[in-house]
Amino acid sequence: MRREERQQLIVNLLVENKTVDLDDLADRFAVSKMTIHRDLDDLEQAGVLRKVRGGATIDAGMQFESDFRIRERQGTEAKLAMAQTALELVEPGMTVMVNDGSMAAVLGEMLLQKRPLTVITNNAAIMERLKGESGITLIALGGIYSAKFNAYLGVVTEEALSRLRADIAFISTPAVRGRLAYHMDDNVVRAKRAMIASSARTCLLVNHQRIGHTALHVMADLADFDAVITDVAPDAAFLEEFEQAGITLTIASTQDPT
After folding, report:
1. Which of 5, 42, 45, 174 has the maximal Cβ count within 10 Å?
2. CA–CA dist 79, 87 (Å, integer)
3. Which CATH class is domain 71-251?
4. Assigned CATH class of 3-59
């Protein structure tokens, strides 16, 4: 088996199980542990996974967010529910900003239901889906392309955002704790903050499984957002924290997380 094929199978296992074990991988592919170590090193360098003792994981950590190619295959029902709820905040004729991320990409496609719209985005998946669509004025933000986030980031992106104004911005986050939203990548943080600053209203989208977690950088205070949407109600302790902080949490689905 070629190295590329083996590494793709490792990624497939991670999507299914979220973690992989070094010994199990060596047995499964009939190769040495050192070979698996090298595979995991390659995938970690590409931003696909995070190595941990005895294996690897795609679960987000303080300084790690899994690759867009993995995230877009996870949590489809939750993303659809949150995107549908977020869509209720959009009216035809609006100018809408949408940030990077697989959650945002789902919302980006749904925006076609609300045309005519002007859509401003740094999300390459949304650019690809909306380009050429009638009733959509697409403003594609440039910058340095990040394969990990499938988005354009950096000074060029931030400068363009400073010269634009939207009616509403949809911002996603991989971590929320207390009244703060977090992200592990500083370039992504700056782009999201620039969108928040350039919009009359803002909406935060967060999977309930990410509530109660932190990441390396504080991105924003939840009070900065006009709406905070999640897919399933988080634990009662977190709901109480939001209530005490005066944060209204909109639940997109009442489905039990189990």
Report:
1. 174
2. 12
3. alpha beta
4. mainly alpha
Query: What residues contact 78, with CB distance under 8 A and at least 6 apart?
Result: 207, 208, 231, 232, 252, 253
**What pairs with residue 203 in β-bridges?**
170, 227
What are 221's two structure tokens? 């205070």
Lowest average pLDDT, out of 15-19, 52-56, 142-146, 232-236, goes to: 15-19
**The pLDDT value given to residue 173:** 93
Q: What is the pTM of this model?
A: 0.76
**Dist CA 101 CA 108 (whole Å):** 10
Contact 118, 94 (CB under 8 A): yes
Q: How far is CA 177 from CA 19, 67, 101, 242, 253, in A?
A: 24, 22, 20, 9, 21
Question: In whole angstroms, what is the distance from residue 127 CA to residue 3 CA?
Answer: 32
How many degrees, rounded to 5, is the angle at CA 145 between CA 4 and CA 156? 170
Question: What are the residue boundaries of the structural domains of the chain, listed by start?
Answer: 3-59, 71-251
The number of helix segments (H) and strand segments (E) in the chain equals 10, 15
The pair of structure tokens assigned to 165 is 């104004």
Token reading at 242: 């939001």
Q: Which residues contact 126 (CB under 8 A, 6 or more apart)?
A: 98, 104, 105, 108, 109, 119
**β partners of residue 95:** 118
How far is residue 67's CA from residue 138's CA, in Å, rounded to a whole number?
Answer: 25
